[in-house]
Amino acid sequence: MSEQADRRAFRRFSVDPLFCATFPELEGVCVLKNVSLNGAFFLNRTPPAVGSRLRLEFVETPLNGYRLVGEVVRHGQGSSKGFAVNFTNPHPRLLRSVYHNDYQTL
Q1: Rounded CA gap, 101 and 6, in Å?
Q2: Rounded CA gap, 66 and 57, in Å?
Q3: Contact between 58 and 20 (Cβ < 8 Å)
Q4: What domain range includes position 10?
Q5: Number of structural domains, the chain?
Q6: Could you read off the pLDDT of 54-103 as tens digits, one per residue?
Q7: CATH of residue 32
Q8: CA distance readout (Å), 2 to 39, 55, 83, 90, 92
């Protein structure tokens, strides 16, 4: 098991790509890649600085209009160019939606 995996406290769920808007606005497209109870990873070619606070708003079903606030905690590398966000509060609607989609594909 990698050192990175050892630090994760919550299971991550892969998701069908969902577009989201960010405030402040980021250059390029921002797409949800995976999610856990306390955070998520977003694909984006020009990630914001680590430590930045972002407001995220989903623009696709099933999460259209759902908003979250979080802090950028790391950048992805290689084919996963993007950023990880930790949320200040758990986000049950996001996780429930992801779990529902994940469960149906099993």
Answers
A1: 26
A2: 6
A3: yes
A4: 3-104
A5: 1
A6: 998 888 887 888 888 899 999 998 878 999 999 877 676 776 766 555 44
A7: 2.40.10.220
A8: 19, 30, 19, 25, 28
